[in-house]
Amino acid sequence: MPPNDLLVLGGDSNPIRWRDALEREVPNWIQELTTRMQRNDEIAWREAFENYQPRLRRHLLSVCRGDEDAVQEALQETWIRVVRYIRMFDDEEVFWCWLSRVARSAVVDRSRKRTRYWAMLDRWIDRRAGSVESSPTIDSARLGEAVNSLDPDDALLIRAHYFEGQTYAEIAAGCGNTARAIESRMSRLRSRLKATLERNEIQ
């Protein structure tokens, strides 16, 4: 269910507030909204912003521990990424999970400029690089580049699990999948990152 009653379906020609939509059994409002967003419908984007900006801000205030500057930067980056990667969703809870994960990813990427983030990447290298030994030639920046080279959804999964500490079950619940499927997917992603690191090492 959307966070408030501002959502309007159907554009200017046929406005329907979401509470009315539920009463009239308008089919799958989130599918309609995200489809219009994907088609770059300006009204749909305004509807999404009005409905989810306050909720995102509350979420990021918690993630950023009340740091208003960090929240504002993360909000801007979140919407930039949503514009870039929006797709159709047919479930509001899954859409919100994706949206909040994009927001948390924006926070993590912002923190890359700080020592704590680089330390996390270093620990990730030590745990997951496998046969690729940690050395001055395989540094945090190169691992960050390797993660960023993945498909956006794959990069979000890596960050959610390794940088934010989410379990496979938590990720699976938000993606409408099983923990075992997420674990299998993560294993393939680790192999791809390892191959990328090895390839860069040769170069």
- The average pLDDT is 76
Major sheet: 2 strands, antiparallel
| Percent range of helical residues | 55-70%
The beta-strand count equals 2
What strand order characterises the main sheet? 1-2
% residues in beta strands: under 5%
List SSEs in N-to-C order: EEHHHHHHHHHH
Key features of this structure:
203 residues; mainly alpha; globular; two-stranded antiparallel ribbon; 10 helices; 2% strand
Describe this structure in words.
- This protein is an all-alpha fold and 203 residues long.
- The chain has 10 helices and 2 strands; from the N terminus they run E-E-H-H-H-H-H-H-H-H-H-H.
- The protein has helices spanning 18-23, 29-38, 42-63, 68-85, 92-110, 115-128, 140-148, 152-163, 168-175, 179-202; strands spanning 8-9, 16-17.
- The chain has a two-stranded antiparallel sheet with strand order 1-2.
